[in-house]
Amino acid sequence: MTRANHVRQMAKYNEWMNTKVFETAMRLTAAEITADKGAFFGSILGTLNHLAVGDTIWLKRFVNHPENFAVREVVQTLPAATSLDQQLHPDIQSLAIYRRKLDQIIIEWAAAIKDSDLDHVLQYTTTKGVAMKKNFYSVIMHFFNHQTHHRGQASTLLSQAGVDVGVTDLMALIPNEGDV
User: What are 165-173's contacts with CB under 8 Å, separation 24+?
Assistant: First the structure.
């Protein structure tokens, strides 16, 4: 599998898992979703908002790649994130709509990536104003790992609230090769 295909696979996994997490979360009441459970970002809603904030920040950085990905224009219309605990949406329904939009952007962006794009050194500034120069592929892997990390937290919070997300393993999306 090429690195570009790996990025595409991770984008599909991201979309699949976000759909499962949001469908599960929407089975809870607003009070259950917003209850502070002592997690890094407080509640289920706080955790899912953080994921949307992180993805938004990274997508805005990614479109500065010299390849000029086609999603650039739509990414530039996304809200500016001012902090990592910013609440982009006050309820699960409006956040789910934004999440679907982000996931579609990520799928389209990943579809356009070529292996040669991945060796680029991405220059960006952190939310604390620190200038960075990082390998694009490594940063993309962080992007997907960050999503998995916080979705795991959300899955735990959902489980504690009495609802099950179901299968979450990437293995569920990796096809069998040849005869088994």
Answer: 165/20, 165/21, 165/24, 166/20, 166/24, 168/17, 168/20, 170/13, 173/9, 173/12, 173/13, 173/16
